[in-house]
């Protein structure tokens, strides 16, 4: 019931926005080149969905994104577990983590251009850096905040530290780690497209957007590409939220108070 | 045999929780522990369980100094809901510790189901702890400890959240398991009636920083009955004695210090008598 209502409201909002854009255009409130009609943009978007060149760009962006993200998960989760469960290491690394975290990924583009020669590697390195922090921070704090009573209750039955980590700390931290990965996935998508726009070279959605504007190009095509970029972000987020709900039903149900 | 000598513990923040506890518990005894709220009962149990290292004195179990968690121990924590794992079903919560017993998965599940049955929760086996009421969760944590078949069982206010009827059933369950398996049990309670009903002896602790105020033997036969035992003159006499000791705070049976007589013995609750400082 509530779900259907929420969905209906969301759909209504989207249709409303499209109608506004359409009206603004039809009434001649803005220049046709700056904001084409919504129907034109959607038409272009539909055409892009079967446009081989565009799909190559999307594939390239997604590949770099997935690679960088997986790499970040592979590094950040074990590192976060280590820093979060050994207080001494956690304290020692805190300053470094807080120092490095605010550096925007795009500020590292010049460095990455020097270090890596392959465009895909450059992109992956930037995504890796951007995705690292949300995962690391979430893992670290989730492990630090595991309920001591839960850990004690397994320990009291004679289980060692390793078992407590595997059977209590990791399961109880898992939903927060997953949230970190989801945030990192969204951030990664933004970073990869920004990097493509700023650094250029190779294939990618960002490159497509740049080229669609080259030489007073077609705004409708550019906006259609942007719509697809947004849709990608939405799909990734929705997919991961769905996975979290299935995998961590115990957590969502508990938090939302339903069973 | 559990020997506690000059045990004291000061928390890192400087709070002195227990000061100089001496206590010897022979194998197979059921010791009730009563004492005012916040006096250090949970701290005492944690020291015995080897979960915290006491800052003074020692705990010796069967001749071995306790430095870590001893073999064959089970604890029913006061924070029962936090001690259950929300990502596991009730049955899996109960079955998990049995991994330490070297049992197969099927055996673990079977033992878990039997334990759940004994606390009247067989029907909730496939639910998750957060789908149960507080009293039901408390019974799950009791079932988990019983399924483990410990040789030393520490129970920290294990019946605090259940109704009177269930509470009596659980008291009898503990007595029955105790008789059948001859395990040593330390049971912390705020209920003076309960301490006498289940205990072979009642240890009365003083206010924080706590020490042993009195050690009262319970002169009752080991077979107990909720109606008959509570009507025995020995029961009534021991209950009154423990009640006075708890109210007197320290120094033993100072009758003049005792508060007004309470008509309902259940109301002679330590929590009511000695409010937390
Ligand atoms: N981790 C801790 N750090 C500092 N002080 C603590 C800690 N745990 C308990 N204390 C203090 O030690 C004292 C004894 O605590 P404890 O939990 O052992 O009391 P208790 O007798 O079990 O109380 P209750 O009957 O309310 O369960 C309390 O004053 C408490 O504030
Ligand atoms: Mg306590």
UniProtKB/TrEMBL annotation, chain A:
Residues 58-240 form the ABC transmembrane type-1 domain. The chain crosses the membrane at residues 64-90, 102-120, 126-143, 176-199, 219-243. It is a multi-pass membrane protein. Keywords: Cell membrane, Membrane, Transmembrane, Transmembrane helix, Transport. Its main location: membrane. It is found in: Cell membrane. Pfam families: BPD_transp_1. CDD domains: TM_PBP2 (cd06261). GO terms for biological process: transmembrane transport. One of its GO terms (cellular component) is plasma membrane. It comes from the Bacteria. Belongs to the binding-protein-dependent transport system permease family. This is Nitrate ABC transporter permease.
Automatic annotation (TrEMBL), chain B:
It holds the Pfam family ABC_tran. Keywords: ATP-binding, Nucleotide-binding, Transport. Coiled coil: none annotated. SUPFAM superfamilies: P-loop containing nucleoside triphosphate hydrolases. InterPro entries: AAA+_ATPase (IPR003593), ABC_transporter-like_ATP-bd (IPR003439), ABC_transporter-like_CS (IPR017871), ABC_transporter_ATP-bind (IPR050166), P-loop_NTPase (IPR027417). GO terms for molecular function: ATP binding; ATP hydrolysis activity. CDD domains: ABC_NrtD_SsuB_transporters. Residues 249-277 are annotated as: Disordered. This is ABC transporter.
